[in-house]
């Protein structure tokens, strides 16, 4: 078994670089001091994300391939959330010397498979030793002449819509932690569909955690359809929705039943997890004293689904892949709930997220730093 | 004393973001899913580099400010080496929870000071906890309509030229390791000039290691003056020159006396280091059994000077900051040395770097991974 410490930096790069896709916007790929990319409309979009071993992934569950797929996908979701088409990524990789070379080449293959659906290139990188695995990805995108879709553009009267899976990643992580699904998963990409989840489809939930498959095309389609605001859902639906609400200076009200079908679909996984770990396990967080609480937490507060949340003008026809899940209200407006509830919302110091007009129970989502 | 674990991710970002410069090419700065940058000629240049604690810097010598300055500078050097003007950077930062907040805000200030000379923006980032400090920077640049200057363009007959300091960074590191200069240095930027180094100017050598100041403008000027090939010198002059030679399919011959003045200027530091650590200390590497060997190693093999090496057509007028240091030869040509020496060069399997027609002694420079 070859470990990375057995090879020089240049020898490792010789194994990695041939695995990486060139991409349709790449004018000059890896091998020089820098790469050169096309920016068709004289602008480019850029975002960066870092994955740290034992914080964002665990090598006992995630192969190098999984981490590469996830790193590409979750970064491209940030590009899609601007309404842009992903064009290229660069990677900084920190690897302990005893890492197997196969893990590193697997990562490269995962990056390549993450790039493939959008035709993006993997155009450069840097490699260093270090005490734990760190994968830092910077992604780029092309707005193709459109204005970027910001978080700040939601207006009262807009429709709130969602694209992607809901709660699958948190459920998949819980299944892994409870030992209910074995890894590694098959390296073949698992198709994520919008259909009803079968009882025996736990592997799909685990795949959603290990290798999220964000609705990248839906971001571009939303921009074309006139989305007024959009963001990637990485830290939990309610937490990220709060960011959009604050940036726009509005209140986002979700339909109470918007995700009932999703919660139903997660019941079998929740029952199994509860049976394996004990119902109301403190690790599941507040409000999870029963199965319904657990599926609610997965859907409303679970991180890393990397779906997209957007707002559209009232009456706009939602593009394929998008589901209406709520409405945008002004801060001073009377909500849809009972009088006492509306007062609580109006009394908030700033914008808020409500579910059926009510402030949700405390489900703060994920804080990368304190975790 | 505030440590990062005392604050949430959002609270830390609230301290960092106001310190970061917007930059002249920034259309949308931090705060959304991604930033938007201008690409004036429909292309952009991108490069990434990672700095790992105890590999690329040590916190007992480098403040957060130093690491920020260095991270920006060494990345921008890669952009300059393409003949491009740096426009923007994004940062992924991994910090242990017990890191002082001042270290992180110092890093942001250092990044800002590294951006200032070129008007670049710091337009986004990501923050995570982790077991050691990791700073991953991705930089972008604008070719302003010019073709990129590649490593592969050197042609027989070209002049080899250099811009920047030579051996200062390695000498500065040696002075630190020998305990001859106290840190932290003053946060005021130390001017690096091309003049003769004073005997009492060791702080400048240390500053060249802690906060390199690459000749960024010289990269753009070289491109405008018709440079045929160029690269950033990060892993040592001979090692990096070999990369340019291989990419171009040529032999690079340095004038034997090209850097004699630089070596003379480093003599006082070398004498002091040798007195402190013992002459011929195995830590100094091969060929360093005397003072002259030590200064030679610093100049020819010392890493992280982040000067630029370029080739220009014969007779081209070198821009300000550039010094002619050698010539480009074809692989089959007869060199300038003695017959036996030339045979050795011709007998090499591929392109080579020579000094006065002779193959240099083994001074391989820096391998990030094996170090």
From TrEMBL, chains A, B:
Belongs to the thiamine-monophosphate kinase family. This is Thiamine-monophosphate kinase. Keywords: ATP-binding, Kinase, Magnesium, Metal-binding, Nucleotide-binding, Thiamine biosynthesis, Transferase. One of its GO terms (molecular function) is thiamine-phosphate kinase activity. It comes from Promicromonospora vindobonensis. The gene is thiL. PANTHER family: THIAMINE-MONOPHOSPHATE KINASE. Residues 31-141 form the PurM-like N-terminal domain. Mg(2+) 3 binds at residues 33, 78, 232. It catalyses: thiamine phosphate + ATP = thiamine diphosphate + ADP. CDD domains: ThiL (cd02194).
């Amino acid at each position: 078994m070859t470990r990375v410490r057995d090879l020089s930096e240049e020898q490792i790069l010789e194994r990695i670089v041939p695995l990486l896709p060139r991409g349709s916007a790449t004018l000059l790929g890896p091998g020089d001091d820098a790469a050169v990319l096309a920016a068709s409309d004289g602008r480019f979009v850029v975002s960066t994300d870092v994955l740290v071993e034992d914080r964002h992934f665990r090598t006992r569950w995630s192969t190098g391939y999984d981490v590469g797929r996830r790193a590409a996908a979750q970064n491209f979701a940030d590009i899609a959330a601007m309404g842009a088409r992903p064009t290229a990524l660069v990677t900084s990789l920190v690897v302990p010397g005893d890492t197997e070379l196969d893990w590193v080449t697997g990562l490269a293959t995962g990056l390549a498979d993450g790039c493939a659906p959008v035709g993006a290139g993997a155009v450069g990188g840097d490699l260093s030793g270090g005490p734990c695995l760190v994968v830092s990805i910077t992604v780029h995108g092309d707005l193709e002449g459109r204005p970027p879709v910001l978080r700040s553009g939601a207006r009262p009267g807009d429709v709130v819509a969602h694209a992607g899976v809901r709660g699958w990643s948190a459920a998949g992580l819980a299944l892994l932690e409870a030992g209910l699904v074995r890894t590694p998963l098959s390296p073949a990409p698992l198709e994520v569909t919008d259909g009803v989840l079968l009882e025996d489809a736990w592997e799909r939930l685990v795949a959603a955690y290990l290798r999220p498959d964000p609705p990248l095309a839906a971001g571009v389609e939303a921009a074309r359809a006139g989305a007024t605001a959009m963001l990637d859902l990485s830290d939990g639906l309610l937490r990220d929705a709060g960011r959009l609400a604050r940036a726009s200076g509005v209140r986002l009200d979700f339909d109470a039943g918007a995700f009932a079908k999703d919660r139903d679909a997660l019941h079998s996984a929740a029952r199994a997890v509860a049976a394996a770990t004990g119902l109301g396990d403190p690790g599941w967080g507040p409000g999870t004293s029963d199965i319904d609480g657990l599926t609610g937490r997965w859907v409303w507060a679970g991180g890393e689904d990397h779906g997209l949340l957007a707002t559209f003008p009232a009456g706009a026809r939602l593009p394929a892949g998008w589901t209406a899940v709520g409405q945008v209200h002004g801060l001073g407006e009377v909500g849809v709930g009972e009088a006492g509830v509306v007062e609580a919302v109006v009394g908030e110091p700033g914008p808020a997220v409500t579910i059926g007009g009510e402030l949700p129970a405390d489900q703060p989502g994920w804080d990368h730093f304190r975790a």
